[in-house]
Every structure is written in structure tokens, then in C-alpha cells.
Amino acid sequence: MKRKIDQTLLELWLGILAYGAVFEIVLLFFSRNPAYSIGLWIGVFLAVAGAFHMWWSLDRGLDLPEKEAVKSLGAQNIIRYAVLVLVIGALMFVDFANPIFAFCGYMGMKVSAYLNPLVHRLRAGKKEQEISDGTAL
Q: How many domains are contained in the chain?
């Protein structure tokens, strides 16, 4: 069975990628060190993967009874942050990419979440969109 991608997740991904592109342009303006750019895009990839994992775990966890949902969502949250810590920790020991810029790339998920209403409005075009509670965007 093929499922459609959730529109909110798609908009979150678009925001993360836009953040990465803008950050990359600013980064190239100040420095041309490839380790910075590689670190940034590793972080952006982690943000995209983390957003998918968050969507998947919420979609699955909210169908469970309350106690099991709390356990499941907590465990998935720990897994998500453990992967982030492991990747950034590994980057600290190899001279391949900058771990600080990887973290900055991961923060694209946060920025994208805050800018999601703007991304939603841009994707919707000029026509007025309504949220499920009737609020016009």
C-alpha cells in the first residue's frame, strides 16, 4: 500500500532545504572551506531524516493506548537524539566535516518549524487557506 506524504512534512522538508541553501550562500560568502559545507549538509540531511522519523513515530504512536504511546514516543525521541549525538561525535574525531556546522544544519528543522506558516502560505499561492479550526492563513 502506497501512502501519500503528509503535506506538513513536505513543507517542513522544503523549509529545511531552503534554510540549508540560504545558510550555504552565506557560508560561501565568508569561507570556502569544504569541511564547513559538508558539515552543514550532513546536518541538513539529519534534519530531513529526523523530521521524517518524528512524523513516522507520531503517526504510529498516536494510534497506541496512552501509556504505550508515551513509552513509544519517548523511546523514539531518545533514538533520534542518540543518532544526532553519535554523528556529531563521530565528526569531532574525523577531519572530514565541521561538527558545529552539522549542528547548525540540524537546527534547520527548528527554523523550518517556526517558518512553516510562511512556507504553507507560499505553497498555497494567493488563495486563502484555512486550518482545520477555520482560522484563515
A: 1
Residue 98: which domain range?
7-123
What's the pTM value of the predicted model, to 2 decimals? Answer: 0.83
132 within a domain of the structure (yes/no)? no
Q: Does residue 51 lie in a domain region?
A: yes
| 36: in domain | yes
In this predicted model, what pLDDT tens digit does every residue of 16-71 receive, in sequence order? 999 999 999 999 999 889 999 999 999 999 999 999 999 999 988 888 898 899 99
Q: Using one digit for the tens of pLDDT, what is the confidence trace for 25-36? A: 999 999 889 999
d(CA 57, CA 77): 9
> Does any domain span residue 133?
no
C-alpha to C-alpha distance for 95 and 93, rounded to whole angstroms: 7
